[in-house]
Design goal:
Layout (H helix, E strand, L loop, with lengths): L3 H24 L6 H8 L3 H7 L3 H5 L1 H15 L7 H20 L5 H13 L1 H26 L8 H21 L6 H12 L2 H6 L6
Helix pairs in contact: 1-2, 1-7, 5-6, 5-8, 6-9, 6-10, 7-8, 8-9, 9-10
Amino acid sequence: METLRERKKQRTRDALLRTALELFTTQGYEHTTVDDIADAVDVSQRTFFRYFAGKEEAALALEEMTVAHFVAAVRGRPPQEAPMEALRQAVLEGWDTLNDVIEAVVPVELYLRMCRVVESTPVLLAAHLRKSVEIEEAIARVLAEREGLDVDTDPRPRVAVAVFGGVMRLMERQWSSGQDFSLDAMRTLTISYLEQVGPALSESWRTR
């Protein structure tokens, strides 16, 4: 059972995270300091650093949550599903339950605004892409485990995840440069692009 102290620490962390994201999305990541965040929550800078290593960690904290949610969904898919189908169903399941994960900390609308900040802020985008490499490796290992393969001798799990990761990266870019920034738009793009993987890889593109 969670103690009063643990609940208080969680409330402080959530308040710092919400405030950081609000400031990042309203006045810009580069123009927001750790002191700005701490002052807005009425805590010390030292308290901020008890919960986050720095601004970057706070900016990408929700990404960590959603990734953990997705990896758990992949691990929980039925063993008879083909790997690419397991990834597809896990990401769709993730969109359907994202509200439950995000809303516990911040409004989904704030999360979506922060996604656009990450895409438009070079230092955050670079960090996001670095993390994507680590995430793809973790997912490849989950797939290999599901299929009873050695990920270091069989390239198929990493190949599948590389294709899947490329599609998701394309979706992020298209969504952030579009006009509809809703969660539904992100989900629709995801479905549309994943459905093109098979034809794009196995069929001729020429028209006569």
